[in-house]
Amino acid sequence: MKERDPKYNISHKKMPNYSQHEKFVLSKPYDKWYIILKSSKEIGSIYLTKENEIGIFIKKNMQKKGIGFNVLKTLMEKNPRKRYLANINPMNKKSIRFFKNNGFKLIQYTFELEIK
């Protein structure tokens, strides 16, 4: 999680601490959640929610090697659905390009009004 750039998050404003993240993981928030391994080393993760939303994270030094394409394809083959979604922060151009290049299309814009 340390490698993730918080400006690309859509679900939280700041990165959770270890305890918060552990609590989140133990709540089993996803339908499927896989750790991506390369030579027995963890290089990322991919998940599928109960609403068919896909999230993917791959360490920067492992990007642009076809790994994302392969794990996305495997996720969809192992978990067939009629429709998949990917909610992406509009500033995350790499992720937007990745999903477009893998056949996904833009279907909505979401706006937020935060009251403090």
UniProtKB/TrEMBL annotation:
GO terms for molecular function: acyltransferase activity, transferring groups other than amino-acyl groups. Residues 1-116 form the N-acetyltransferase domain. Pfam families: Acetyltransf_3 (PF13302). It comes from the Archaea. InterPro entries: Acyl_CoA_acyltransferase (IPR016181), GNAT_dom (IPR000182). This is N-acetyltransferase domain-containing protein. It comes from Nitrosopumilus zosterae.
